[in-house]
Design a protein that fits this description.
The complex is a heterodimer of chains A (about 130) and B (about 80). Chain A has about 130 residues and is mostly helical. Chain A has two domains: about 1-70, no CATH class; about 70-133. Helix content of chain A is about 85%, strand content about 0%. The longest helix of chain A has about 30 residues, at about 70-100. The radius of gyration of chain A is 19 Å and the shape is flat. Chain A starts with a helix and ends with a helix. The mean pLDDT of chain A is about 90. Chain B is mainly alpha-helical. Chain B has a domain at about 10-60: 434 Repressor (Amino-terminal Domain) (Orthogonal Bundle), CATH 1.10.260. A two-stranded antiparallel ribbon of chain B has the order 1-2. In chain B, helix 2 packs across helix 3 (about 35-40). Chain B starts with 7 loop residues before the first strand and ends in an 8-residue tail after the last strand. The chains are: A mainly alpha (about 130), B mainly alpha (about 80). The interface between A and B is medium-sized, with 13 and 13 residues. Chain A: Keywords: Membrane, Transmembrane, Transmembrane helix.
Chain lengths: ~130, ~80
């Protein structure tokens, strides 16, 4: 298993622990309740878990070290599409929720976020096409 | 399901003729991971043109001695 693949397992495990821990806490107090410290603790906990995991992987890996290559980048590119699709679906859900609930600040953040991200992608594509033409 | 590539290679054979060069040693020369070399040998991954040239360079042979692309229906 390459360093990159081990790194993915570490990130996945750290995310599962973080989501499960924070999710259980939410089950107790409800999704409509929250605090900055709660979210911050979850994010910091995730970063610490990921850092420890990567430290262990780096200490036990031989040979390739943290080298990544074209195959890793191709896997990244293919899986980014899945992640992007999931994120877009969530933002569309937030947009719909904002409109139904009359929370227009939320709806507008989702609306401009979706279009802003799409426009950024289009601009990047135009630049890349121009560079390769 | 992903269509299997028609690209074939002799990387494993050329490693043998290069004094049983290890996958790790070849990976080091080419600048990829050992796992990528293993995936190329098993035809599970088609390398970029640049990597294909670098592999050929590592064995000091023309690229056509390492990789081939047989007509459809052949070599399956």
């Amino acid at each position: 298993m390459s360093f990159k693949e081990k790194s993915i397992w570490v990130m996945l495990l750290a995310m599962l622990i973080t989501v499960a821990t924070y999710g259980l806490d939410r089950v107790d107090s409800g999704l409509a309740q929250g605090s900055v410290t709660g979210i911050a603790a979850a994010v910091i906990g995730f970063v610490v878990l990921a850092a420890i995991g990567h430290g262990v992987v780096a200490a036990t890996s031989r040979g390739d070290g943290d080298r990544t290559d074209e195959r890793d980048r191709e896997v990244d590119r293919k899986t980014d599409m899945i992640g992007d699709g999931a994120l877009s679906a969530v933002v569309i859900g937030i947009l719909a929720y904002g409109m139904i609930q009359g929370d227009w600040l939320l709806a507008h953040i989702a609306f401009f976020g979706l279009f802003g991200a799409a426009m950024l992608k289009m601009v990047s594509m135009v630049v890349l096409y121009r560079m390769a033409s | 399901m992903k269509k299997p590539s028609r690209l074939q290679n002799r990387v494993r054979e050329l490693r043998f003729f290069a004094g049983e060069m290890t996958q790790g040693a070849l990976a080091e020369k080419v600048g990829v991971t050992r796992q990528t070399i293993a995936a190329i040998e098993k035809n599970k991954y088609a390398p970029s043109l640049e990597t294909a040239f670098l592999i050929a360079e590592a064995f000091a042979v023309p690229i056509t001695d390492v990789f081939s692309y047989p007509p459809e229906g052949e070599g399956e």
